[in-house]
């Protein structure tokens, strides 16, 4: 190490850079050795203040006056609440104003700082004692929990011989109660569906009357709104409770406890009309490319928005990359299997999800830790979508490439399977790419390139429509949807891979317009952020284009 710059070395002269500084200029705030003092003060001898090095910074450093550049501000004007110099204080602008000396304010602040330092020095040891106490508690945790576990093990050995028979009996009771519970809910569901069916028939009749010119049927119409606004009561069927009982050797058969009986109550529900969405944004006449992000993938498949400033991307490699909007790489992770992921998504907590075809697994990555969420048997997880409620929709294909379905998960629990429409498959079973998204009305939209269609079902999995493209003299190749997303206006946007454009369709499947003026090429995945900015993957270019298409 250079001795001139050793960590234990004394201050060096700021003029010659080598000699030890014995003095300090408290006006210019520089270290000085004795030979360099003469050179330093040669220009204006009177203004410099040379003091021993240990007395440095005894001269206060006042702020410069903005009006009088060569003057320092030594006062604070109480009336104007600004720092002023002596010339400002005697000017007409500040005539009659009151002033405080900055030196006095400085001294008071120093005193206050000193008192705070003394007080914090007194408080600091207490935190040290608290930390030591907590560390001791943490160190003793294992031993204390081992004692607890030992006690529980002894109790378990004592009870195990007799508890099995009692538990088996209660499980039988639970099965009987479950059947009753199911029957009550099923009966109530049938009542609700009957009213729902009647409402649908009423809506059909209203449509016929609305389109009809018949006078009698129209003037004799009687409103059913009030009737249907009186919603069926909500049935609350409480789950049976298990109430454990303390050990009583004389009544061992009652040791486990008892089950509470099934309880059914009716809770009145009041219909409240939802407010219409008034935030309407119109389509731009000419969409605009705001930015192009070069991802470095030779073949780029998917993009998912982390937030307004960051996106995740994946291609046909094991690497999943996060970029900011300026195109700077923020993070890279690798899949567990070191094989390419099928798709990526971001959950409502900001964690990254990806599907791995090699391990038949959906993984979650949070704080650089990867955990297994869902592992499949006989099916391959493909594209992913996180719903507005935080559930996960997974497109999966059978290993023999004959069937495809959409499965809804809450955590790792299956809540719904969507596969058929009146016994007919909703989706193509081949290995061609499919993308999935959820619309604002909770419709589930799948871009099925194997069927050359966008398939839309409602939340219950009932087919709403199939969109198979829009006739155009300029679009010569077959409609082949790949990536799909929705925006705040409930528009459905899907890329048309072979025709290098994006179709924008309404929530009911009606075509609105194309986005085909942004030099798009080999488009694939796409997503929309919370500001309705559109991000589009270009498969062979390895680029993500950020496009503005709404006013």
Helix/strand layout:
Blueprint: E1 23-25, E2 30-32, H1 34-41, E3 50-52, E4 75-77, E5 82-84, H2 86-89, E6 99-101, H3 102-211, H4 215-219, H5 225-229, E7 234-238, E8 242-243, E9 258-259, E10 263-267, E11 283-294, E12 300-305, E13 310-315, E14 319-324, E15 329-334, E16 343-346, E17 352-356, E18 361-366, E19 369-375, E20 379-386, E21 392-398, E22 404-410, E23 413-418, E24 420-421, E25 424-425, E26 434-438, E27 444-448, E28 453-457, E29 463-467, E30 481-486, E31 492-496, E32 501-505, E33 511-515, E34 523-528, E35 534-538, E36 543-550
Antiparallel strand pairs: 1-2, 1-3, 4-5, 4-6, 7-10, 8-9, 11-36, 12-13, 13-14, 14-15, 16-17, 17-18, 18-19, 20-21, 21-22, 22-23, 24-25, 26-27, 27-28, 28-29, 30-31, 31-32, 32-33, 34-35, 35-36
Summarize the structure in words:
This protein has 551 residues and is an alpha+beta fold. The chain has three domains: 11-74, no CATH class; 157-267, no CATH class; 283-550, Neuraminidase (6 Propeller). It contains five helices and 36 strands. The strands form eleven sheets. Strands 11-36-35-34 form a four-stranded antiparallel β-sheet, with no helix packed on it. It has a four-stranded antiparallel β-sheet with strand order 12-13-14-15, with no helix packed on it. The longest helix is centred in the first third of the chain and has 110 residues, at 102-211. The chain starts with 22 loop residues before the first strand and ends with a strand.
